[in-house]
Design goal:
With 201 residues, the protein is α+β, with helices and mostly antiparallel strands. The chain has 2 domains: 2-94, Cysteine proteinases (Cathepsin B, Chain A, Alpha-Beta Complex); 96-189, Cathepsin B, Chain A (Alpha-Beta Complex). It is built from 6 helices and 9 strands; from the N terminus they run H-H-H-E-E-E-H-E-H-E-E-E-E-E-H.
Length: 201
């Protein structure tokens, strides 16, 4: 969701805070009304691809329209509307694309922040404070997604923003080593906003 907000800001120069609660409620497989294509588990976590596909299929509303409740609930069917000067109340994706090589990853980052998966259970990641996380220090399953916002080929690292809050790392920002195949990242995805549906026009 942070990647959508960041790319929205880059493309429209507008700040948008999207609804976490909508994703919790509307992609939760535990709710009988949730379509089978979404296998997320509400407050217990979920899957990146299910979340991205939802925001392709449906508009993701602003947090003020679908407020955070800190518990799972029934998906609300909100109606999209235009505010003053044609301002939309939501954002929506046109598509997302898996990045298959280091070259594709670097080119995509130049266009805007991308989403990448990581092995966040490793102490090197979980307890990170400063410096560069070595790629070979990350162990265990891929279980988390971050927003990659830059890179340095001289130092050989990616710069990313985490969702653990400002007390983690350098105010929520960290470096992770890159290698020829793009690790220590797992899978990486570039998103494309549907600007006609998401911004003033």
């Amino acid at each position: 969701m942070s990647a959508i907000e960041a790319n929205y800001k880059i493309q429209t120069n507008e700040t948008l805070y999207l609804s976490e609660q909508q994703l919790i409620d509307c992609t939760n497989i535990k709710m009988p009304e949730t379509p089978d294509e979404y296998q997320n588990r509400g407050c217990s976590g979920g899957y990146l691809l299910d979340t991205l596909q939802y925001v392709v299929n449906k508009p993701l509303f602003k947090g003020k329209s679908y407020p955070y409740k800190a518990f799972e609930g029934k998906c609300k069917q909100l109606q999209a509307f235009n505010g003053k000067n044609g301002e939309r109340d939501f954002a929506q994706l046109k598509s997302f694309k898996k990045l298959e090589s280091m070259g594709e990853i670097l080119a995509a980052i130049q266009r805007g922040p991308i989403i990448a998966t990581v092995k966040a259970g490793s102490p090197a990641f979980r307890d990170y404070e400063s410096g560069t996380i070595p790629a070979d220090a990350l162990e265990g399953p891929i279980n988390h997604a971050v927003i990659v916002i830059g890179y340095d080929l001289t130092s050989g690292h990616f710069l990313f923003k985490n969702t653990f809050g400002d007390k983690w790392g350098q105010k929520g920002i960290a470096k992770i080593a890159m290698s020829g195949d793009g690790s220590g990242l797992g899978e990486a995805y570039e998103i494309e906003l549907d600007v006609k549906k998401s911004s003033k026009y």
